[in-house]
C-alpha cells in the first residue's frame, strides 16, 4: 500500500530520533569548567560569518547559517551528538525533567475547540472538576475556539507560572450554560512508568517508557505496590524505550542487584574509566527478573538489560536491542541552544561495548532497522549476526556478544498480526484515539456502571464499532485503508484505547498485553520456573 511506504520511515525515524535526542548520560551543566582559547580554525569560521553579515549581496539570517554549520559538524562526528536549537530546549528539558507547569489535561483540537480527552490523574484540572468530554472555550477571557487558532496558541493560554490561577469557561454536554471553573496551575508529571500490575499471582509487570528524572520514583512506587501484592517475580518491560539518564538506570538496577555488583563502566578519549556499582539499598535482590527488550530499546534500556544479563541475574526476552553505547553530555552554547556531545563510551560489566558501527554515515546507521527486517532477524534468531571476536562470558558461564545491541536469552519474533504497517500507521497517527473519543461523546454514561477490572476482563468491542471505525477512516483520509485481515487486532486497539480514556491508570497496557506474545512467553517461563 502506497501510504505505508510513505509514512512508515517517517514514523520509525521520528521514534528513534526521540531516543537519540534524550541520549544516554545527560548533564545539564558543562561540568568541565575549561575555557577555550582562540585558534585558526575558530577564527576562520568567525571571519566567514562576519563576511556574510556585512558584505554578502543579500540580507541573510546568519543564525540559520550557524545552525546548519553546527549540525553539519556534529553529523560528521557520530549519530548521537546532536544540536538542540533554543526554541526546542524547553520541550526537551520538560521531557527529561519529567514534568511541566500547566493545568493537566490530555486534549486534542476538536471542531475548532479544545476537547478534553481526560484530565491527568492527580492534576489541577481533575481536582477542579474537569472531566472527559469537556470543551475549554475560554481562558481568562481569551477565546480558545475558532478555525484560525493554532494548537500552540491554545497551549500558551493554558500554561503559566506555577500556583497561578486561570479561569476557564467550559462547555459540558447536558449543562444549560457554560461552567466557570478556576484551575490553579501546577507541576504536571510526564509519566514514564505506563503500568504496574500483576500478570499472575506471583508475577508483577512494570512498563517503563523512558528514563527521566522522575522515573525512579515512579518505578519504586510501582515496585513497592507489586511486592505488597505478593510479587516474587518481576517482568520489566523496556520495549520501545529510547533511553535517558544513566544514573536513573543505575538506581533501578540497584533494586535488583546485590551490593558491589558492577553495573557498567564508561571510558573517555583519555582512557579514564568510571565504574558504577550497586549499593545495599535494593528491595528486590532475591526476586526473579525478566527484562523485555526489542529493536527500539536503546541506551539506558540497554544498560539495564546488559547489567542484568552480565550479572546472571535474570532472563532477557525479546529481540536484539538498538545498539547505542555512546554517552552524551549536554553543553550550553550561550544563546539558549545546546549540544549533546558524545564524551565517552559505556561498557557492560563483562566489558562489552554494544554500540553498533556508524562508519558508513548517519543514513546507513538509521536505516539498519530495515536491514534487520529484510534479513529476517526480527523473525528468526538464527539470522542475528554475531562476531566471535566480540564474544564474552558471564561469571555464570553464559556466552554473550558485543558489537551491536543486547542479544536476548530468549528470542521472541515480531508479531506481524499486532505490529503490521497498517495498525502502526493508525495508532501513531492518532486515528484510533480520536475515533474512540468521538464514540464516547455519543454516550459517556454507557460505561458508568462498569468497573475498571470488569472492563479489562469482560468487556467486548462489538463488530458494529469496528465497522464504524472503517467508515470514520473513509471520511477522514484520502487513502484506501482497510483492515479486513486484522479485525480482531483492531478490536484490541479500540478496547485498550477505550480503557485508557475512561479509566487511565495503565488500563491501555493491561488490556493490550492480553494479546502480546512476549507477555505470553514471560508467563510461560514464570510458570515453568515455579514447577522446578
From TrEMBL:
<keyword id="KW-0378">Hydrolase</keyword>
<dbReference type="InterPro" id="IPR001478">
    <property type="entry name" value="PDZ"/>
</dbReference>
<keyword id="KW-1133">Transmembrane helix</keyword>
<comment type="similarity">
    <text>Belongs to the peptidase S41A family.</text>
</comment>
<keyword id="KW-0720">Serine protease</keyword>
<keyword id="KW-0472">Membrane</keyword>
<feature type="domain" description="PDZ">
    <location>
        <begin position="81"/>
        <end position="159"/>
    </location>
</feature>
<keyword id="KW-0645">Protease</keyword>
<feature type="transmembrane region" description="Helical">
    <location>
        <begin position="7"/>
        <end position="28"/>
    </location>
</feature>
<dbReference type="InterPro" id="IPR029045">
    <property type="entry name" value="ClpP/crotonase-like_dom_sf"/>
</dbReference>
<keyword id="KW-0812">Transmembrane</keyword>
<protein>
    <submittedName>
        <fullName>S41 family peptidase</fullName>
    </submittedName>
</protein>
<dbReference type="Pfam" id="PF03572">
    <property type="entry name" value="Peptidase_S41"/>
</dbReference>
<dbReference type="InterPro" id="IPR005151">
    <property type="entry name" value="Tail-specific_protease"/>
</dbReference>
<dbReference type="InterPro" id="IPR004447">
    <property type="entry name" value="Peptidase_S41A"/>
</dbReference>
<dbReference type="InterPro" id="IPR036034">
    <property type="entry name" value="PDZ_sf"/>
</dbReference>
<dbReference type="Pfam" id="PF13180">
    <property type="entry name" value="PDZ_2"/>
</dbReference>
Amino acid at each position: 500500500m502506497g501510504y505505508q511506504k510513505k509514512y512508515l520511515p517517517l514514523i520509525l525515524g521520528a521514534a528513534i530520533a526521540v531516543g537519540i535526542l534524550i541520549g544516554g548520560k545527560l548533564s545539564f551543566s558543562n561540568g568541565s569548567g575549561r575555557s577555550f582559547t582562540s585558534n585558526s580554525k575558530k577564527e576562520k569560521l568567525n571571519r566567514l560569518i562576519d563576511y556574510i553579515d556585512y558584505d554578502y549581496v543579500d540580507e541573510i539570517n546568519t543564525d540559520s547559517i550557524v545552525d546548519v554549520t553546527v549540525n553539519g559538524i556534529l553529523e560528521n562526528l557520530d549519530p548521537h551528538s546532536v544540536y538542540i536549537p533554543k526554541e526546542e530546549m524547553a520541550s526537551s528539558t520538560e521531557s527529561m525533567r519529567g514534568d511541566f507547569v500547566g493545568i493537566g489535561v490530555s486534549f486534542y483540537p476538536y471542531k475548532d475547540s479544545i476537547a478534553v480527552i481526560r484530565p491527568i490523574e492527580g492534576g489541577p484540572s481533575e481536582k477542579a472538576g474537569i472531566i472527559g468530554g469537556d470543551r475549554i472555550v475560554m481562558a481568562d477571557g481569551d477565546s480558545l475556539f475558532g478555525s484560525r487558532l493554532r494548537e500552540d496558541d491554545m497551549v500558551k493560554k493554558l500554561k503559566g507560572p506555577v500556583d497561578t490561577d486561570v479561569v476557564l469557561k467550559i462547555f459540558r454536554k447536558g449543562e444549560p450554560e457554560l461552567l466557570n471553573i478556576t484551575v490553579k496551575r501546577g507541576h504536571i508529571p510526564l509519566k514514564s512508568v505506563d503500568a504496574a500490575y500483576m500478570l499472575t499471582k506471583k508475577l508483577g509487570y512494570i512498563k517503563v517508557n523512558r528514563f527521566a528524572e522522575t522515573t525512579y520514583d515512579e518505578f519504586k512506587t510501582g515496585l513497592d505496590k507489586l511486592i505488597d501484592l505478593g510479587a516474587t517475580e518481576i517482568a520489566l518491560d523496556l520495549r520501545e524505550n529510547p533511553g535517558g539518564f544513566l544514573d536513573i538506570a543505575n538506581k533501578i538496577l540497584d533494586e535488583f542487584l546485590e551490593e558491589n555488583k558492577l553495573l557498567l563502566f564508561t571510558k573517555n578519549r583519555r582512557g579514564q574509566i568510571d565504574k558504577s556499582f550497586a549499593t545495599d539499598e535494593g528491595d528486590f535482590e532475591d526476586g526473579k527478573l525478566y527484562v523485555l527488550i526489542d529493536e527500539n530499546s536503546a541506551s539506558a534500556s540497554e544498560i539495564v538489560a546488559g547489567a542484568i544479563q552480565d550479572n546472571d541475574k535474570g532472563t532477557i526476552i525479546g529481540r536484539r536491542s538498538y545498539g547505542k553505547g555512546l554517552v552524551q553530555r549536554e553543553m550550553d552554547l550561550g544563546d539558549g541552544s545546546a549540544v549533546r556531545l558524545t564524551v565517552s563510551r559505556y561498557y557492560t560489566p563483562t566489558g562489552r561495548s554494544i554500540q553498533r558501527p556508524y562508519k558508513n554515515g548517519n543514513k546507513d546507521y538509521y536505516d539498519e532497522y530495515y536491514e534487520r527486517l529484510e534479513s529476517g532477524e526480527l523473525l528468526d534468531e538464527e539470522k542475528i549476526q554475531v562476531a566471535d571476536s566480540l564474544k564474552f562470558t558471564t561469571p555464570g558461564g553464559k556466552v554473550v556478544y558485543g558489537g551491536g545491541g543486547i542479544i536476548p536469552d530468549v528470542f521472541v519474533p515480531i508479531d506481524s498480526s499486532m505490529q503490521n504497517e497498517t495498525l502502526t500507521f493508525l495508532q501513531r497517527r492518532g486515528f484510533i484515539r480520536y475515533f474512540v473519543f468521538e464514540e464516547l461523546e455519543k454516550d459517556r454514561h454507557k460505561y458508568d456502571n462498569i468497573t475498571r477490572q470488569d472492563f479489562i476482563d469482560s468487556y467486548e468491542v462489538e463488530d458494529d464499532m469496528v465497522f464504524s471505525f472503517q467508515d470514520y477512516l473513509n471520511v477522514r483520509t484520502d487513502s484506501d485503508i482497510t483492515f479486513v485481515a486484522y479485525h480482531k487486532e483492531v478490536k484490541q486497539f479500540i478496547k485498550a484505547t477505550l480503557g485508557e480514556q475512561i479509566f487511565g491508570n495503565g488500563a491501555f497496557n493491561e488490556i493490550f498485553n492480553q494479546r502480546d506474545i512476549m507477555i505470553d512467553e514471560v508467563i510461560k517461563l514464570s510458570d515453568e520456573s515455579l514447577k522446578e
